[in-house]
Amino acid sequence: MRLGILGSGLMGGKLGTIFARAGHEVVFSYARGKEKLKRLAREAGGKARAGTPGEAATQSDVLLLAVHWSRFADVLEQAGDLKRKILLSCSLPMNTDDTGLVVAHTSSGAEELARMVPKARVVSAFNTVPSEVLFGVYEARRKAARPGLVYCGDDERAKHTAAELIRDAGFDPVDAGPLQSARYTEPFALLVARLAYEGKGGPELAYRFVRLGK
Ligand SMILES: NC(=O)c1ccc[n+]([C@@H]2O[C@H](COP(=O)([O-])OP(=O)(O)OC[C@H]3O[C@@H](n4cnc5c(N)ncnc54)[C@H](OP(=O)(O)O)[C@@H]3O)[C@@H](O)[C@H]2O)c1
Prior knowledge:
The chain is built from eight helices and eight strands. The protein is 38% helix and 17% strand. α1 (10-21) packs parallel to α2 (34-44). By secondary structure, it is α/β, with parallel strands linked by helices. The chain has helices at 10-21, 34-44, 53-58, 72-79, 109-116, 134-139, 156-168, 182-198, and strands at residues 2-6, 25-29, 47-50, 62-65, 86-89, 121-124, 148-153, 172-175. Residues 7-12, 30-33, 36, 66-69, 71, 90-92, 94, 127, 130-131, 189 line the site of NADP nicotinamide-adenine-dinucleotide phosphate (NAP).
């Protein structure tokens, strides 16, 4: 796949590196310095390169949105036309000091995003794991017991693509249904963050769903 990373920080930098190592063509974009994007591309290897958000958007079929809620408008404006693009968002609608969600209960960051870019096919994924877990999960991808990862969206083909990328990253995709389910997965992400950063186990925390019964 051709993947554009919009926001090359903790999440975007790591996921872009993993996708490049899994064989995808990756364009890292949106950081405060071009050198950082070039370094990420160099270290990721494979078919990774650095570019602008506009280049990432025009040269890719799937875009990973990995910026703070306060940067959405800016990065989307720089990305330009996202018509028919799959927009995979790991971003959460956090307030400026990252202490709580600014959208919840009756809507979600993912639904607000879909309203901002109505022509894109939005899938919410990867926001329910701390970035610290990503490389370890990718390295253990051949083990039988993979951690789960919930994702949701309204476009079935876009979700299919998202599930493939989730598998490539070493997780078992768990379909949480329509984009509206982000109203539940986004607060769940905050629970995971609380357990990861304030709990005893530290940030290397992943989860697994077990369906009991027949
Ligand atoms: N980190 C996690 O474990 C985690 C887990 C689940 C969900 N999330 C969500 O994922 C999203 C991204 O989180 P993150 O931790 O990856 O954030 P981050 O490390 O701060 O990355 C954000 C990226 O945006 C870039 N950026 C910020 N302001 C910019 C500006 N004015 N111009 C150009 N680039 C700018 C940053 O550049 P620099 O690289 O130069 O700083 C960085 O590359 C957030 O919505 C967060 O809620 C994060």
